[in-house]
Design goal:
The termini are far apart. Helix 1 packs across helix 2. Strands 1-3-2 form a three-stranded antiparallel sheet, with helices on one face. The protein is α+β, with helices and mostly antiparallel strands. The chain has a single domain, classed as 50s Ribosomal Protein L17, Chain: A, CATH 3.90.1030.10. Helices cover 51% and strands 15% of the residues. The chain has four helices and three strands. The longest helix is centred in the N-terminal third of the chain and has 18 residues. The chain is globular, with a radius of gyration of 15 Å.
Length: 117
């Protein structure tokens, strides 16, 4: 039974899924918006929200924590702390938005754009 299982598996093993989600996070931070499937966008939203919340307090410990969660990408870590944390300093959540797009022609999967507000 699937009681209290609140994450999507995407047909991958645990380590593959973890790397997959981290890759989506890095791309979202790098580009500011990505086009993906609706399920993937909904899955990465809470992770992005937590990263921005962590980045609001600029300390060595927070920088190391954020860097470890996005695969030690130095440019993206700096961007989170310099751009996004400053932009959302007075906002308490809701840093991202998901916009639905028309379904994909090849397999009719629901597409979406996830972007920073």
């Amino acid at each position: 039974m699937k009681h209290h299982k609140s994450f999507r598996k995407f047909g991958r093993e645990k380590n593959e899924r973890k790397a997959f989600v981290r890759g989506l996070l890095v791309n979202l931070v790098r580009h500011g918006r990505i086009e993906t499937t609706l399920a993937r966008a909904k899955e990465i939203r809470p992770f992005v929200e937590r990263l921005v919340t962590l980045a609001k307090e600029d300390s060595v410990a927070r920088r190391r924590l954020v860097a470890s969660r996005i695969m030690n990408q130095e440019d993206e870590t700096a961007k989170l702390f310099k751009d996004y944390a400053v932009k959302y300093k007075d906002v308490s959540g809701g840093y991202t938005r998901i916009l639905k797009l028309p379904t994909r022609v090849s397999d009719s999967s629901e597409r979406a754009v996830i972007e920073f507000v």
